[in-house]
């Protein structure tokens, strides 16, 4: 079982392809692609709103790639149709290129190696959209890219030398509580050390601080994330760590380092326990 | 000592003290009581205002201005009866580094500087010169002395696979460079070759300085020319600033606009020349909030030999993401992180895990 959701993994894998990361290929960076936006809201000529997971742009190729990272086996057909409705004017405002009138683009899907057959079959029923698939050993693709440079770059499987990056995009609502807890507990301890924040812990405030896409989330996603953070805080307070945190806030001395160490062990135990809870839930399901 | 109120008076006094101490040491005489070698400490101040730092710092000291706006007199408080209050001159003309000059005895001066750096919210840090930079310092001329100190912190005491658990050595003489080169070639010793100080000479003929430079930015000077001592300080400062700039260029930055987000930056990689044997115990040690690493953190294993770590640099309070495998660690610095965190991590790995550890910037070029 992977602790990161497929969606979070895919977003990190794709961003990684636009960077120089140890033991990870820079296939898209080598073609001049950079990450323009995560989760941009685009408008089709008919006025429909659609939000791909990523938008990449290459000044060198004058080309853009709106990418949908598909965790799971099923695609949302209406979302794919909206993506296919996009035209150059929908994309130009969100891509930084020298000559926007010449900009071309194509829609790309991404999936895990495990689900790529199902995803590419569903996508192909609507259009011939390329699908990039990641598994632990290689990157493959289904269907053809319109742009030749991309087709050449992904034509043969790309062998992977090491694990995918995980730190460009922290987590989303589908990630397990253990992963969310890493970020939430770190922020709480960080605030205690720097004595920033009001000292009152609110699930909603913490979620907004820790998740960089909070402002673009719809109400339903925000509520789901807030509830995740709340459950981490509930577990946290049950174990009495909130008291430890208050103690941390009062002073900064060698004694605190010992307290921090104790707090670290308690937090780590909570992260491990939340992971186990998920494993048990999955097993029972 | 006469009261020093200008930078030129400080320079004259430093030069006199260097020359006097050098003359006595050359004649194989001990220094007289109260006659100490002048010392300069380079500290990384991250651009903070000196007066603000010193007034909010918990360190016990008084600060007095001088006629020069960027020169201050700092008076510490003695720790034991019979000691003198240590006196320092803080040169804060550089926006990123402070230089503290003193004539105090080494143990008193070191204790004061440690307290100053460790005091809450000081915003100050030592320099953490990696092995490569220390070795390059010696390249400017014949190496006259060096010290090594290595103390394995990540290997269990009974591990049979550990060739060296701890090593400490100081060597003086004209063969210092030769001995160091010989050690570097040795397969058994090369993982524990962590230089803590080198003695270097700069200058020609009658105008020269001989400095003992430590990997934490302390310079003990003797010789005839304070200009040459300053030249060594500047050389180290520039080298260090270049490394910080190269590191900070890759910090993770997040931009949000119209509900979308862009994340910029790339990870740096700390590469080991020997593998981590036990990932759990390694992470436990690394993230224990203790000196020298001063990192607090939690981790999850994403794969059996790949851990995702959410850490806090306790020195600055900033967040750092680490991705750890037995061969390397990807380091994602946050927007507010200081490059010094990475150099501290690197230098401490070299002194406590593997002196062959290197740092790669994202174009896969080793910078130190």
Structural overview:
The complex is a heterodimer of chains A (285) and B (368). Chain A contains eleven helices and ten strands. Chain A has helices at 6-16, 27-30, 77-85, 88-91, 116-126, 148-155, 177-194, 203-210, 219-238, 241-250, 254-284, and strands at residues 33-38, 42-43, 49-50, 54-58, 63-69, 104-105, 108-112, 131-134, 138-142, 158-159. The longest helix of chain A has 31 residues, at 254-284. With 368 residues, chain B is of the alpha+beta class. Helix content of chain B is 28%, strand content 32%. Chain B has eight helices and 20 strands. In chain B, the strands form three sheets. In chain B, strands 1, 2, 3, 4, 5, 6, 7, 8, 9, 10 and 11 form an eleven-stranded antiparallel beta sheet that branches. A seven-stranded antiparallel beta sheet of chain B has the order 15-16-17-18-14-19-20, with helices on one face. In chain B, a hairpin with a 3-residue loop joins strand 17 and strand 18. The two termini of chain B are 41 Å apart. The mean pLDDT of chain B is 87.
Form type of chain B: globular
Report the biggest beta sheet of chain B as strand number plus sense, adding barrel if it closes: 11 strands, antiparallel
Helix % of chain A is: 40-55%
Measured as a percent range, the helix fraction of chain B is 25-40%
Largest interface, C-beta within 8 A: A-B, 51 and 48 residues
How would the blueprint of this fold be written?
The complex is a heterodimer of chains A (285) and B (368).
Chain A: H1 6-16, H2 27-30, E1 33-38, E2 42-43, E3 49-50, E4 54-58, E5 63-69, H3 77-85, H4 88-91, E6 104-105, E7 108-112, H5 116-126, E8 131-134, E9 138-142, H6 148-155, E10 158-159, H7 177-194, H8 203-210, H9 219-238, H10 241-250, H11 254-284
Helix pairs in contact in A: 7-9, 7-10, 7-11, 8-9, 10-11
Chain B: H1 7-26, E1 39-44, H2 50-56, E2 61-65, E3 71-76, E4 87-91, E5 97-102, H3 106-118, E6 125-126, H4 131-138, E7 145-151, E8 166-172, H5 176-185, E9 195-204, E10 207-214, E11 218-223, H6 226-248, E12 253-257, E13 260-264, E14 268-271, H7 279-286, E15 295-303, E16 306-313, E17 318-324, E18 328-333, H8 339-352, E19 358-361, E20 365-366
Antiparallel strand pairs in B: 1-5, 1-6, 1-11, 2-3, 3-4, 4-5, 7-8, 7-9, 9-10, 10-11, 12-13, 14-18, 14-19, 15-16, 16-17, 17-18, 19-20
Helix pairs in contact in B: 6-8
